[in-house]
TrEMBL record:
Organism: Sphingobacterium paludis
Keyword Acetylation carried by entry: no
SUPFAM superfamilies for this protein: Alanine racemase C-terminal domain-like, PLP-binding barrel
Entry keyword Membrane: no
Active site positions, chain numbering: C410
Name of the protein: Diaminopimelate decarboxylase
Length: 473
């Protein structure tokens, strides 16, 4: 039986940066921005991006480690962030021909760029070679393509090898990327060092997930390979440990825990649904039992960003019996990271206009926004932050009301959020809905133009709330 408390809104209160609070307080500016740029619009700021870079640098400097931060541009397509990273003396990780070409055209030198693209065709490799960009080689076909390019043009190129197949407690960490440690050693010692045009510069890996013990194991095994190469007289200039640094989106741990608890109760029929048609967000119900966990980003984290990196560096490396930071420093190698989402933490919001209100056949309130679900989407099963309702008008109904946000694609599943949202008052046509902290992956990673809808405009907000749309964004 459902208790009265079962229908209480399950808040997921987002952390809001001061620049966002200031912007949201200026309703007239928001309304004018949406009017000029059309709905939806991504409003972004460089200030949190710079703050996040500084946080990472503080950790590296604390341990006196040579370092380089490469912004993973695939997390946000706006060139402004790439230029800001380069201006701060850091680098940019590029994952496609257009990403690389745009960065070069923006004046970012090749030695501040790396190429990690999962697919590296000949034109992409040729551009990287021509511009002296460090190329992360993932497989032998890439290596042989690059070999043919540099031999044909008699042009030198610097390369790093991506590693995979690390082990932890006797189990191999599964991945579709990279060379095994043994194959990497063989390729470096037998072919690359004797190559007339290729220069080995370092090692790279990127692990899926957020397990610190897995990161520590991968670094330890990479260091063993570095030591083996050193014994063979081959120096390694850098070790790149990739991205995937956690972000904390939520103000309260209790809200996060309560949401998971109540979602499971809802899917088991023990309370009213909190997602549309009781969507389990990736869990499976079989014979009154739930299997698995929601396939969502861990929106609450006690070790976000720089604290996550610091935890990795202070972990003990087996079999060395020393903290990782001591081992890195002793070898005098540059430690590289490729954060994307975490550098963009608090750097942007997405704002859309309300265009209709209606009820579906099950009596649910549907609030239609002038956007589609791909314009605020990542690989997570749902975006688990409360949106912010902004209205200039006197509401038809003053009491709180719950409903769902839907978008413009002509699909039954066109829900912007699967979670039921509580509005403080009944939404009015022309009201605005702001989705907080969307700059990392949410804005651009899956956006599409089906139905010939225009992509969202990207604008930037200065400290004094001046809104500008910059070239190349």
């Amino acid at each position: 039986m459902n208790s009265p408390a079962a229908d209480k809104h399950l808040a997921l209160t987002p952390i809001i940066h001061p620049w966002i609070e200031k912007l949201l307080a200026d309703k007239d500016l928001l309304a004018e921005t949406v009017k000029q740029q059309n709905s939806p619009v991504n409003i972004q700021s460089i200030a949190p991006f710079a703050e996040n870079i500084a946080e990472y640098k503080r950790v590296f400097e604390q341990y006196q480690i040579k370092h380089k931060i490469f912004f993973a541009r695939k997390a946000n397509k706006c060139l402004t962030f790439a230029k800001a990273a380069a201006s701060a003396g850091e680098g940019v990780d590029t994952a496609s021909h257009k990403e690389l070409q745009q960065c070069l055209e923006a004046g970012i030198p090749g030695d501040q760029l790396i190429l990690t693209a999962a697919i590296k065709n000949v034109p992409l490799l040729e551009l990287a070679v021509e511009e002296h960009v460090n190329i992360i080689i993932d497989n032998m076909d890439e290596y042989e393509s690059l070999d043919g390019i540099v031999r044909a043009n008699e042009t030198k190129a610097s390369i790093s090898l991506r590693l995979g197949g690390f082990t932890l407690d006797g189990n191999t960490l599964p991945t579709r990327f990279g060379f095994s440690l043994q194959d990497a050693y063989k390729l470096i010692t037998e072919e690359i060092t004797a190559h007339p045009f290729l220069r080995f510069t370092g090692l790279h890996f990127h692990l899926n997930g957020y397990a610190i013990d897995q990161r520590a194991a991968a670094i330890s095994q990479s260091l063993q390979l570095i030591d083996d190469l050193a014994a063979a007289g081959i120096p390694c200039q850098h070790l790149d440990i990739g991205g995937g640094y956690l972000v904390n989106y939520l103000a309260q741990q209790e809200e996060w825990q309560t949401f998971h608890q109540e979602l499971k109760r809802a899917v088991l029929g023990q309370r009213t649904a909190i997602t549309y048609q009781n969507d389990p967000l990736g869990m499976v119900r079989i014979d009154e039992k739930l299997y698995g966990e929601p396939t969502v980003y861990p929106y609450y984290n006690e070790l976000p960003k720089a604290a996550f990196l610091e935890k990795i560096l202070s972990s003990e490396a087996r079999p060395y019996g020393q903290p990782i930071h001591e081992l890195i420093k002793a070898r005098n190698i540059e430690l590289r990271i490729e954060p994307g989402r975490s550098l963009l933490d608090q750097a942007g919001i997405t704002v859309a206009r309300v265009v209709f209100r209606k009820t579906d056949t099950e009596g649910n309130l549907l609030v239609g926004l002038e956007m589609n679900r791909t314009q605020m989407k990542s690989s997570s099963a749902d975006f688990l932050l409360d949106p912010i309702h902004i209205t200039h008008q006197s509401a038809e109904r003053q009491e709180p009301i719950s409903g769902y946000l839907v978008g413009g694609y002509c699909l039954e599943q066109e829900f912007l959020l699967k979670r039921k949202i509580q509005f403080a008052t009944y939404p009015q046509i022309g009201d605005l809905i702001a989705f907080p902290n969307t700059a990392g992956y949410m804005m651009h990673f899956f956006e599409s133009q089906a139905h010939q809808f225009a992509l969202a405009s990207n604008v930037f907000c200065t400290a004094d709330l001046e809104i500008t749309k910059q070239d190349g964004d």
